[in-house]
Amino acid sequence: MNSEFYSVSRIEEGVAVIEFPDGTFNEVPFSLLPDDVKEGNILVKNDEGIFIHDFKTEEERKKRLLSLQNDIFG
User: Fold this and answer.
1) What separation in angstroms does the CA of 62 have from each of 41, 46, 47, 52, 65?
2) The model's pTM
3) Contacts (Cβ under 8 Å, ≥6 apart) of 10
């Protein structure tokens, strides 16, 4: 499986705006994404090039952000 991460930035009419590993943002049609995709999801491409959720990385990022918030705001 590919280790490059794609972050769902926002959802718009019929597309998701996704941040690609190189930092660019591109619109991706819902038809190419998991059915339950939402803002903030972390995706990877499987060996066939299909976007799938990466729940482990998503959870790790949430924990890291929460830790940073706690460090800043106490």
Assistant:
1) 10, 22, 26, 18, 5
2) 0.81
3) 16, 17, 39
Using H for helix, E for strand and C for coil, what is the string for 10-73? Answer: EEECCEEEEECCCCCEEEEEHHHCCCCCCCCCEEEECCCCCEEECHHHHHHHHHHHHHHHHHHH
CA distance 28 to 32: 7
Model pLDDT for residues 13-70, shown as the tens digit of each residue: 889 999 999 999 999 999 999 999 999 999 999 999 999 999 999 999 899 999 999 9
